[in-house]
Amino acid sequence: MCSAVLCESRLVTVPDGPLVRVEGQSVSIRCNVSDYQGPRDQDFEWSLITGDGGQDIQLVSTFDPMYTHTSVLDRVESGDISLKKLGEASVELTIRNVRASDSTTYRCSTPSTDSVISGNYYADVELRVIGDTLKVSPAIPSAAVLEGQSVQLHCNASRAYTAHTFLSITWSVRKGTGSPEDILTFGPDEAVRVGPAFTERYADGGLLLDLRGGGVYRMELKEALALDQGAYMCTAREWTRQPGGGKGWQKILEKSEDMGSVTVTPIGQSLAASLSPVSPRFTGDPTELLCNVTDIRNVPDGRLSVTWTYGERRPEGVVSGPMTVATVDELGVLLPGDSYRQRLETGAVTAGRSGPATFRLFVLRSRDQDMGRYSCKVAAWTRSLRGGWDKSPERQSLPVTVEWTAQTPLLNVVAHRVREAATGGSTFEMSCRVTGQNIQNPGYSVLIRFVERQGSNPRKVVSLSADSVLQLEEGMAASRTDSVALEKTGQLEYRFRLYGAQVSDRGFYYCDVTAWTRDQSEDWSRAVSAESNKIEITFTDAGPVFNVSIRSDRDSVSPGDTAQIECTMAILGATPNTGDVAYDVRWFQTPLLAMDNGGAVPLISMDRWGVVRRGSANESAEFSLERTDRHAFVLRLHRAHDRHMGEYHCTARLWYISASGLWREGRELTSAPVSLAVSLAFWDSVQIPVLCGLAAALAAGLLSVVVGLISAHWCLSRSPMHAPRNKLIDLEMD
């Protein structure tokens, strides 16, 4: 313990009053002591201060069991009034069921354990017990509303005024079997608190609070939604400030009353749609479908949307899945379905609102494909809290069948030959005549097709559209644009021409005709197609026609000079494929001495691949052969000699690519002969014999000298040995 000099004064504390409680509720009052001397464990006493000059009434004590006054002894013994030690220096007085007579001042005292009397040894707090005067009377003027309308929720609360008490009002809703969910609370500090699920709606102005005073509290649900349906209740609470002057609140009374159930009827649920058709009598007549909407008086601003759907009726009677024809949205904007987009954009089909409760779908020219089952779906739209539009569930009409007796369009096409292509390079011409029935305002497109043989895949050659636009198709080479023609020669007659027929053109030709109809949108619609009989192009393929010509740059050459002779081929008429030709070329010589017996000698050749081969008479390579262009071959004679005199000619065998794409051998032609002479002068004629004679004489003289020398040497080697003689004598004898 501390000394008397250092210790502070004893301090006994209780909550600040007054403490306000409603009759029948409980109250707990805590008492604490601090800054005391003596033992740690302190004792406490509670008593009532009557305040009218009478004697104080002792309630309870922690150390004296006989402390309680007889007037309250039964309440203490029954536990209605009790004292609980919370710690060595703290106790709590509890009155479990306060009475109006309990309104008085309560004193908490602590017997002194200090060496010096200092500080306070008791503290007082006032308790006010008020009567239960709170009354709640809720009301809902209109419990059944349409979606989009407002709901008024009235909660009237009244009470007898008591100082230091405050009131709060809470609206809540129970949906289904769940727990109530708070919507909005006003008070007790005049603040507004919104439930988590309604915060956004309150911020958007969907919840309004009307404080009219006099205990009248009203909350309004603006533009009720389907999810607002449920059971509503109103709760009023009385509050007092937390003891000790804190900022918190202590609830002293609460009363709740059911307001009743609110029913929100979706707008679309009250709508009904029916479809009335005006079917055409024949194909091409207009079709009208009216979608009538009933009970739209409850739709705000009459804002509706409608969607038309169509299901195709198949021959077996099955209706295909519905497809969207068009939609008119809540803003009146037309939204076409994917399958009807073109017809709606061109005006062949129109859709719109023809009256407050009527929508109209109109088909300008009905097609056979338009027969089927139609229906319309209607939805109402209400303004959302964020300024947009919310769509109600759609209401669909019963489907109606639109059909009529269809007149099947008929088309017949007959082709006949106008001009026969008898040979390659000639012109083929055929005509196609069209006959149509049950086709209104027809236009025709014609496509010429070609098949090489019966059963093979056709190829497109040329076409003429319904607007008379000519187009070369992929089955005809671009290089032959000028080789075909297709024109309209009469009201219902078309003529096809093929110029310069080639082997690859042989086959069967026919007309593929399509009838088209056109409505006010100026777009063609296909009605029916038909093919004509086939006309054949056939002629014997003898190969390309060509000739061979030969010419020499001069008729006579001097010995040792070079001469050249050109062999030229010329193609006549059409070829299977222009340029796809080649030649095997051979050159021959008929020597001057052999001209009487016609013995031609092969000199040199070049095959179609460009390979050159020498003949037996050209081993010394005196002749060479060169291809100067696709159809010209030049023979060159090098170092002319008299043996080269005679006649020369060439032969050419044609090779060409047939229609099957393979090389094919053609005919061989021989050119006319051309003569070549070698001019010889006198000296040129004798110089070789003279030179040969001189060479022979010189060779004979040299041979004689050599033979003499050899003979002399042999003779000397055979004579006997003799004595030496005078050299002069030997020389003389020799």
TrEMBL record:
Membrane topology per record: Single-pass membrane protein
Domain of life: Eukaryota
Compartments it resides in: Membrane
Keywords: Disulfide bond, Immunoglobulin domain, Membrane, Repeat, Signal, Transmembrane, Transmembrane helix
Segments crossing the lipid bilayer: 694-716
GO cellular component: membrane
PROSITE patterns: IG_LIKE
Protein name, entry field: Ig-like domain-containing protein
Organism this protein belongs to: Electrophorus electricus (Electric eel)
Chain's gene name: LOC113588141
